[in-house]
Design goal:
The structure holds two protein chains of two kinds. Helix content of chain A is about 75%, strand content about 0%. Chain A is mostly helical. Chain A has one domain: Orthogonal Bundle (ABC transporter involved in vitamin B12 uptake, BtuC). By secondary structure, chain B is an alpha/beta fold. Chain B has three domains: about 100 residues, no CATH class; about 180 residues, Rossmann fold; about 160 residues, Rossmann fold (3-Layer(aba) Sandwich), CATH 3.40.50.2300. Classes of the chains: A mainly alpha, B alpha/beta.
Chain lengths: ~325, ~500
């Protein structure tokens, strides 16, 4: 285990030092890597651990972004505070959705439809609310200062998004090792059995969705102050919901390192291939490449890339478990 | 350049070149006769590359190479890049050393400021939605940008900078704001001194903010939402008309047509698709109409979903209301259904006046509706077919890409011309100089309807305006769409209003 922690510490130090050598553009790629890793991790809390598939997680991202921006523009509230309020609003919406879903036993596709419906309804409501910029969206003012969560260069964004990602990993790790995490996994594996054994499945499902929504909403605040433009279609739309779940799926569902690894694979892939094929004449090839990689991973690595990476790294990082044979696999990146 | 044993000794093509031409003449010639200097440097660069290869053959592979590289990125200035011999393979080294040879040696001779004044390439970043839902438009935009840059280069480049050539760096926003922003950042990293694009207002906002963060000028060729230029940004300029200007144009032309013809419509119905564009455009028009005090009564606003297949009930309702005019905000599909239904139900109208939306001028729509679409009036940003600039550009565009230079691509074309004009007047590729020159822009030779491009303090083009077009009789359906207002751009002196009933044509 010490080797694993040593490896992580070195990795952490390297990533912390990156802004010393990298320019704005490459830092921008890392910002997107961390951002999507964080959002994927937030989604992972619900879907990866309890097994309830949410295809409408853009809803919470959008609520966080819009709430933070609304408070900042109308009440001058710093996004640093506004984002937590946004988190609570997203949690409340998540709890309402969860109540409908879990209380009335909607599972599988029915729960999926419920999550899509909520995101779509919110998208339409926001599209018609003047106070939220309706369909033209909200343009944020650019007024760089720490208090406003806005900066000139990408370095502060880099550290903030990195911090988001690291904190999310710590949070998920803590949840995983707590009773809550055990119950959540029990629910994922067999909800009826868990219930029969005395797990209050309703309570833990609700907790999971509240935490997941809360975390996702915080990312919304970051997005708003990084991109400076919010549009209902891009914040609540289906495309964002799908973009958001791709990384944990590619990396590995229900693991701590899965979303992070997935993000480190997919985000640079799309970025580098776009830059490479942008010379003209090959427009869109990068999207095809992106799709092909996603398909290949799902076909050949249904449990995510993380499984293979742990297999590869275990003998080096965890010699004691690797020697005990199969147990090493079980203790994979979780 | 350190060999295995020798000391660090700067080598480069400028030294030999200066010796050949004589130091006295060399530096002035950089400005006065850049072409000959380029030729000379090409020869000496080839020599240096050979010399390095020969040295490598004697001494073995380089272990460490220090490259004093002139860096275009203004914040970093001259930087030293160090790479271990292993990482730098020979081919790329020879290639790079040739390409940066000029800068390499120049900095060792201490003349970077002179070079800064006359770089051979000026990089412009073009970010357009080349993939995604707007791909077709985005590709047209990109092609127009490319064509404009090529034409400027063919005509001798930027003359105030010794014929410097424009190099277009291409970016794809994928029709998404965050991707547009990231692409813009990439192009800035690659040395773009100006950005242009990006068709969508959302992406425009993301890039405008980035331009402000990185202090790089940004010229929007197309992007209409008012809000983009309301933030007081110093680095953003918009060639296209604002949404407010579009609505203002509709009301202005409505007044002019009715006054000119002495016919006063009393009532009207607004129809629109119930999507963001339809609602926004018609809502803006209604507000503007109310504010303007134009004496027409809007008796109803009929909204229907995008992609509707049947408008019979809506048209029956319009018929019962007996309006004089219809103000439709539509898309190509429903404009055809609406017009056919008005004909079928024989709705008497003075005319159809579109305040600004697609569906009334596209060649296939004009062909399909034939007589029924005649005399429709449309307020729209439009190309100026009378101008030689447009005629030439359109011919070249058709030749190169087999497609007509439409309004959007003509604006994209104009954007690149405006940038080149500003750099020409600035005589410099520095951001602040370009911004200062852009602020003083007064650019007349463009292919769209409107006055000279001039930017106000917000960065909006005060010369931008819409045209009023009318579909008129012509045996060739491609020539039926004609500009009727403003006078100086008109292709037809006659405006038909009120229009004869649909069924008597």
């Amino acid at each position: 285990m010490t080797r694993l922690y040593l490896f992580l510490a070195v990795l952490f130090a390297v990533l912390m030092a990156l802004p010393l050598v990298l320019g704005n553009y490459v830092l921008g790629i890392f910002v997107m890597v961390y951002f999507w890793a964080y959002v994927g991790q937030s989604w992972n809390v619900l879907t990866g651990y309890t097994g309830h598939i949410s295809l409408g997680h853009a809803l919470y991202l959008g609520v966080g972004a819009y709430a933070t921006t609304y408070f900042a523009q109308n009440f001058g509230l710093s996004p640093w505070i506004g984002m937590f309020l946004g988190g609570f609003i997203a949690s409340a919406i998540g709890l309402f959705l969860g109540f409908l879903g879990f209380r009335f036993g909607m599972r599988g596709v029915y729960f999926v439809i419920l999550t899509i419906a909520f995101a779509e309804i919110t998208r339409l409501i926001v599209s018609h609310m003047e106070a939220l910029g309706s369909f033209t969206g909200i343009f944020l003012d650019f007024d760089p200062s720490f208090l406003h969560f806005q900066f000139r260069g990408n370095v502060p964004y880099y550290y903030i998004s990195f911090g988001f990602m690291v904190v999310s990993m710590v949070v998920v790790r803590t949840i995983e090792r707590s009773r809550l995490g055990r119950f959540m996994v029990a629910i994922r594996e067999n909800e009826e059995a868990a219930q029969a054994l005395g797990v209050n499945t309703f309570k833990y499902n609700m907790l999971a969705i509240a935490i997941s929504a809360y975390m996702t909403a915080l990312a919304g605040a970051f997005y708003a102050n990084y991109i400076f433009y919010l549009h209902p279609n891009s914040m609540f739309g289906m495309a964002t919901s799908i973009e958001l779940i791709l990384r944990p799926i590619v990396g590995g569902l229900g693991t701590i390192f899965g979303p992070v690894l997935g993000s480190f694979i997919l985000s640079p892939l799309s970025e580098i291939s776009r830059a490479y094929f942008s010379k003209g004449g090959l427009e869109g090839l990068h999207l095809i490449l992106y799709g092909v990689v996603a398909i290949l991973v799902v076909l050949f690595m249904p449990k995510g890339v993380i499984v293979y990476v742990t297999k590869m790294l275990n003998p080096i990082l965890k010699p004691e478990t690797a020697r005990q044979g199969k147990r090493g696999d079980d203790a994979d990146g979780r | 350049m350190a060999t295995s044993s020798g000391p660090v000794e700067p080598v480069g093509p400028v030294g030999p070149a200066a010796v050949i031409s004589g130091h006295q003449d060399f530096y002035p010639a950089l400005l006065e006769a850049p072409d000959s200097i380029h030729l000379l440097l090409e020869i000496t660069t080839a020599f240096v590359v050979k010399w390095l290869a020969a040295q490598e053959a004697v001494d073995g592979p380089f272990k460490r190479i220090a490259i004093a590289d002139y860096n275009d990125n203004k914040k970093e200035g001259i930087g030293m890049k160090k790479k271990a011999g292993k990482e730098l393979n020979r081919r790329t080294f020879i290639k790079t050393s040739g390409a940066i040879g000029l800068g390499l040696a120049a900095s060792s001779f201490g003349v970077p400021t002179l070079l800064r004044a006359a770089p051979t390439k000026i990089k412009i970043g073009s970010i357009q939605p080349v993939t995604g839902p707007l791909a077709v438009i985005g590709q047209g935009q990109r092609k127009a940008n490319i064509m404009a840059a090529r034409q400027i280069n063919a005509a001798g480049g930027i003359k105030s900078m010794g014929g410097a050539q424009l190099e277009l760096l291409l970016g794809d926003s994928e029709s998404k704001p965050e991707v547009g922003r990231q692409e813009a950042d990439r192009l800035i990293k690659d040395g773009a001194v100006v950005l242009q694009g990006p068709f969508q207002s959302g992406t425009a906002m993301a890039i405008a903010t980035l331009a402000e963060q990185r202090q790089v000028p940004f010229v929007m060729d197309v992007a209409a939402l008012d809000a983009i230029t309301q933030k007081g940004y110093q680095y953003s300029f918009r060639v296209f008309i604002t949404a407010k200007g579009l609505v203002g144009g509709a009301i202005k032309y409505l007044k002019q047509v009715t006054e000119m013809k002495g016919v006063m419509p009393k009532t009207a119905v607004v129809t629109n698709t119930a999507d963001p564009f339809g609602k926004g455009m018609s809502g803006g028009f209604l507000k503007g109409l109310e504010k303007s005090g134009f004496p027409i009564k809007i008796i109803d606003r009929i909204q229907y979903p995008l992609g509707i297949q049947d408008l019979s009930t809506e048209v029956a309702k319009i018929k019962s209301l007996k309006p004089d005019l219809i103000f439709p905000v539509s898309r190509p599909g429903d404009s055809v259904i609406l017009t056919r239904e008005l004909y079928k139900q024989r709705v008497p109208l003075m005319g159809i006046f579109c305040p600004g939306s697609p569906g009334w001028y596209e060649p296939h729509v004009v062909k399909d509706l034939d007589k029924l679409i005649l005399y429709v009036l449309v307020n729209v940003p439009w190309v100026n077919p009378n101008s030689t600039v447009y005629q030439k550009a359109n011919a070249a565009f058709y030749k190169a890409y087999n497609q007509i230079l439409d309004t959007n691509s003509a604006y994209a074309y104009t954007g690149t011309l405006v940038i080149a004009d500003a750099i020409e007047r600035a005589g410099s590729a520095r951001a602040d100089d370009i911004v200062a020159a852009l602020k003083k822009t007064n650019f007349k030779d463009h292919p769209v309807v409107g006055g000279p491009v001039q930017f106000n303090e917000k960065g909006d083009n005060i010369g931008a305006m819409t045209a009023l077009i009318q579909v008129q009789k012509d045996p060739d359906y491609l020539k039926r769409v004609k500009i009727v207002m403003p006078k100086e751009f008109a292709q037809s002196d006659e405006i038909v209003f009120p229009a004869p009933p649909l069924w008597e044509r």
